[in-house]
Amino acid sequence: MILAKSKKMIKMMPFFHNGPLGPWKTSKEYATEDKPTGKPSTSLESEPDSVSFEPAGKETCSKDPMKMKSDRRESAPQLSPAPLREANGSCAGTPEQRESPQKRGVKGKLKEFFNISGGIRKTDPKEKDTKKKEDMKKKEDKPLTAEQIVELIEDDKLFDAAQYLIALERGLHTDCSGKSEEELTRDRDEVEKAYELLKQKVFSIIRDSIIIVKKRPELLQHAVKALIEQENEDEKYKSEKPFDKILSSRPRKWKELWMDTVKKSTDERMKEIKGTTENLSTTALNFLHMGKTMKKDLTIVVQHIKQLYPLQFNVCSAYAECYHDYFTSQVEMIAEFELEDKDVYLILSWVQNLYPNDIIKNPILKNDLEGAKLGSLLPAKQIKQLEAKYLCNEVANVKNWLGKTLELEIRRWTEEKEPEKPEKYFHNELDFHVLQTIHGGQKRAEEITPDLGKQASTILLVELSTFLKSYKKALEEFKEKNRQHRYFKETIIANVNNCASFRTHAEKTVPTPDDTKASILTTLNEIENSAYNVLLQDLFLELKPLFKKFTQNKWTCTESIMEDILKTTSSSVSEFHTLRDPFYKGIMEKIHIHLVREYIVRLMKKRVTLKTPELQQNLAKCITNDASLLQTFCTKNGSEATWLDSVLPKLAEIIRLQDSSAMKIEVAMLAKTYPDISKKHLAAILYIKGNLTNSEIKSIQSYLDQSGAPTTSRTPLFSAIKVS
């Protein structure tokens, strides 16, 4: 088992090359030494001759420290001080510790690293602290000279240099060697010079921590250890300071210097804007550089630098606050100037979105930055002012774009070109461009904050309402001036189809009742109805003489007249299939209402009076048949105006009935379904029944007052019919 472990330890030689005070000799350094010739021994006791586990400083026990230092430097770089000696000049340690390598062998050396059971020995924190104190005690017992310490500093052995300087400093201030005051002053000056050199070296490395930590982490670690050693000595001085001895050099306050160095380092890195090919303004480039630098550097701090420092340094918070302070100063400075529209958006994007979400709340950084004092890059009042300015700019830009978009579309209307017809519906791109502009404004605001996005949505909805009124006016002018346009109807249909997108946007943006939303929907309804009237004008003119035939023929042969009406209507309906579904159904409802209303108008012309029940029943039957034909046609062609289905059958029933009580009930039901029917309308229908007295007519009319609230009527029907 020991043989196996020894082989494993040989493979792990780099691990053993570091001692408590510095590195052991490397395998390369040992490779350059003279090796005994002959076949290597396989004995565990004689094996150390081929591979040594001893540090370079313990190979011999020279009585000349300077010679030892010289020998040591010639052999390999070494952080370890010269070996400490006993008062009698012999090597320090127990006999077992002084035992030669040949006697100790691999097995003996491995005992330092393995416990009895063969596992890796765990280091007790108390033992580690005790070892550190022992190391420091040895350095106090036999310190190096200031000149030797300077050499350590120049060799980047900063932690050892810091320890030796502290030991030398302590010795000078408790000197009992009988040196004169002049000699002591000279020695102290040399120590301070060495301290100054160490300070410059340590803080030069700390200043470049972000760059150094990946390339030479051990160098940064030594610098940090030297810093910590000085802080510990300051604390020790504060707690143990004799009232009769005040050191002008203590406390040295290296932690404060460290904080200043971190600040200067972060400021310099935030200022270093490298060349870029990105097409950005100076302000945008500056913000982008600061954001990238802060995020990248803090990631390095969290992943590589934090673990080199004790917790009380709050390294992540310290760095983050320095970067934050610089970022804040730059944003505040830029915000004081008269800003262009794009700069207002840029500042708000960084202050409200990119900085807090992409940097502060970054998954890698979030936990380590929780304790840092990082507020907003700008005061809340200034942010509100910038948001108000941004919204004002955004509205102005959107309004300008909408105006230009409408101008371009009006020009296209006057061109002798048929509108595009993707799939089977006439179409123009006005709704796309308008809503793209609106959505763009909303999205830009939402990217800053959701709350600002809501504000922008409300304001831009008002702009859409204003735009739609201008759009309606432009369409009215086009209809008045371009009746002879080759593609007049097609252009109208294309614009009606646009209304669907505008309606959807308004309803999604404001799902609850709202004045602006109501205004938009009212304008859209007006645009649609106006378009329907224009599109149906020719058809209704063509139907008018056909409806007159009902009265001209005294309501005889009504079935053939209705067939002619529906045939004429059908020929016009086919061209409306280029309307999108909701508008096709809308125009079919208009047609349905017109056919029913015109039929009722003919009944109320008071051209026919039927005095016998038989004649009245025959007319009622004709009306019922016509109503069935009309209803079937309209439903088949897409009308959803089912509320019209009962009006003609109810009128036919009133004409058919002879019992006044039954007629009163039917009138009451009619009035409840169609509450806009008046006594004049009812009187015109009862005029057909020539066998009713005036008193009976008035009695039946009185039931209109008892009809109650409406139930199913959606659109006024009778109120649009004038009765003489």
From TrEMBL:
<dbReference type="InterPro" id="IPR010326">
    <property type="entry name" value="EXOC3/Sec6"/>
</dbReference>
<dbReference type="GO" id="GO:0000149">
    <property type="term" value="F:SNARE binding"/>
</dbReference>
<dbReference type="GO" id="GO:0051601">
    <property type="term" value="P:exocyst localization"/>
</dbReference>
<dbReference type="GO" id="GO:0000145">
    <property type="term" value="C:exocyst"/>
</dbReference>
<comment type="similarity">
    <text>Belongs to the SEC6 family.</text>
</comment>
<dbReference type="GO" id="GO:0006887">
    <property type="term" value="P:exocytosis"/>
</dbReference>
<dbReference type="InterPro" id="IPR042532">
    <property type="entry name" value="EXOC3/Sec6_C"/>
</dbReference>
<dbReference type="Pfam" id="PF06046">
    <property type="entry name" value="Sec6"/>
</dbReference>
<feature type="region of interest" description="Disordered">
    <location>
        <begin position="14"/>
        <end position="141"/>
    </location>
</feature>
<feature type="compositionally biased region" description="Basic and acidic residues">
    <location>
        <begin position="56"/>
        <end position="75"/>
    </location>
</feature>
<feature type="compositionally biased region" description="Basic and acidic residues">
    <location>
        <begin position="26"/>
        <end position="37"/>
    </location>
</feature>
<feature type="compositionally biased region" description="Basic and acidic residues">
    <location>
        <begin position="121"/>
        <end position="141"/>
    </location>
</feature>
<protein>
    <submittedName>
        <fullName>Tumor necrosis factor alpha-induced protein 2</fullName>
    </submittedName>
</protein>
